[in-house]
Amino acid sequence: MKKIVITGGAGFIGSHVVRRFVNNYPDYDIYNLDALTYAGNLENIKDIEDKPNYKFIKADITDAAAISALFKEHAFDGVIHLAAESHVDRSITDPLAFVRTNVEGTLNLLNAFKELWAGNFNGKRFYHVSTDEVYGTLGAEGLFTEETPYAPNSPYSASKAASDHFVRAYGETYGLPYVLTNCSNNYGPNHFPEKLIPLFINNIINNKSLPVYGDGNYTRDWLFVIDHAVAIDKVFHEGKNHQTYNIGGFNEWKNIDLVRLLCKVMDAKLGRAEGESEKLITYVKDRPGHDLRYAIDASKINKELNWEPSVTFEEGLNFTVDWFLNNQEWLKNVTSGAYMKYYDNQYTNRV
Ligand code: NAD
Ligand code: DAU
Known about the structure:
Blueprint: E1 3-7, H1 12-24, E2 29-34, E3 54-58, H2 64-74, E4 78-81, H3 88-93, H4 95-117, E5 125-131, H5 155-174, E6 178-183, E7 185-187, H6 196-205, E8 210-213, E9 219-224, H7 225-238, E10 243-247, E11 252-254, H8 255-270, E12 281-284, H9 299-305, H10 313-326, H11 328-334, H12 338-347
Parallel strand pairs: 1-2, 1-4, 2-3, 4-5, 5-6, 6-10, 7-9, 8-12
Antiparallel strand pairs: 9-11
Helix pairs in contact: 1-7, 2-4, 4-5, 6-8, 8-10
Bound molecules: nicotinamide-adenine-dinucleotide and 2'deoxy-thymidine-5'-diphospho-alpha-D-glucose.
C-alpha cells in the first residue's frame, strides 16, 4: 500500500498517528485529511509538515461530493479513519453534530472507498478507529472483550457504535476489507483541554477550580497516546480483515484518585507545597448518563499482534505534564476565543 489517507490527523490521536506513519514509512504517501474544527490544529504536526511524503488536505468528511472527488483524484489504497466529534459532554448538548460527522462522515468515506475500488479490493484496507464507549458501562467487576454486546449510553458513543456497525455491514455486504479497533481513554501531548487530564493540567497551572463530576468514583482505563499510535500501526499492517481488536492500557484509575495524583505531580513540578493544588478540587453536578467504569481486555491484540503498552502510567503522566508545562503557548492558543465560550457554557452554574 502506498497512498494512505489519515482522517483527523490534525487532532489529538491523529497527529501522533500521522507523525508515526510519515517518519516510519518514507515510501508511503501520507495524506492528512482534516476539516480543522475547533479540535484540529496543524501546530500539532508542524515538525513533519515539510517531509516529502506528507500532504495536508483540508476537507470535511460530511461533504460526500468532495470526499468522493478526493478519493477519485488520489486513489487511496488505505484509509485510517480517526476524524470525529470526540467529546461526550459536547454530544449531550448537540447530538446531531455527532451524527453528521461520526455516522454520515464515516458512510461518505466508506462509499468513496467502495466506489473507487469497485469490488477489486486486493491489497486495500479501511481502518476504522473507534472507542470502548460503544460497549456501555461495566460494574465493579469484569472487562470489555471483543464479544461484549454494544450498549452505548451517550450520544457520542451511540454515534460511534452506529459508525462501527456500518463499517462491519460494508464488510459483509460489499466485501470491503476493514479492520476496527476499540480503544480506552488516551492521554498525552496535544490532548485538547476539554478532556479531563489536559483540562485539569491547564486549570492547575492557572489556579482554577478542578470540576470533578459527581462523587469522582468513575473509573477509566488510561493509555499513553503514542502507545495507541503504535497499536494502530500494528493493526493496519498485521491485523486480519473483518476483525475487531480492543486496545487498552491495563491501567484503571478512579477519577478522584487520578486527579489527586495529578495534583501531587504538578505541585512538585510547579514548586508548590504538597496538597496545594488539591485544594482546587470542586465536586460539581454529574454528567447525565455517566458511565461508571471502562476497562479493556486487550489480550487479543497482545497475543495475535504482540502489542502491549510501552510506558508505565507514572512515566506517561510525567512526560505529559512536562509537555504541557513546556508548551504553554500551545495551551494559550487553543484556549482562546470559542473555547472560553464553551467553558462558560459547560461549567458555569454546575456546582
Ligand atoms: P479530536 O477531537 O482530538 O480530533 C478530531 C479531529 O477530527 C480534529 O482534527 C478535527 O478537526 C477532525 N474532524 C472533526 N470533524 C471533522 C469532519 N467533519 N471532517 C474532517 N475532519 C474532522 O479526537 P481524538 O481524541 O484524537 O480522537 C480521534 C479518534 O479516536 C476519534 O474517532 C475517537 O472517537 C477515537 N478515540 C478517541 C479516544 C480518546 O481517548 N481521545 C479513545 C478511543 C477512541
Ligand atoms: O473511553 C474512550 C473515550 O475516552 C473516547 O472515546 C472519548 O473520545 C474521550 O473523550 C474519552 O471519553 P471520557 O468521557 O471518558 O473522557 P473525559 O476526559 O471527558 O472524561 C473522563 C472522566 O472524567 C469521565 O468519567 C468524566 C470525568 N470528568 C471529565 C471532565 C471533562 C470530570 O469529572 N470533570 C470534567 O471536567
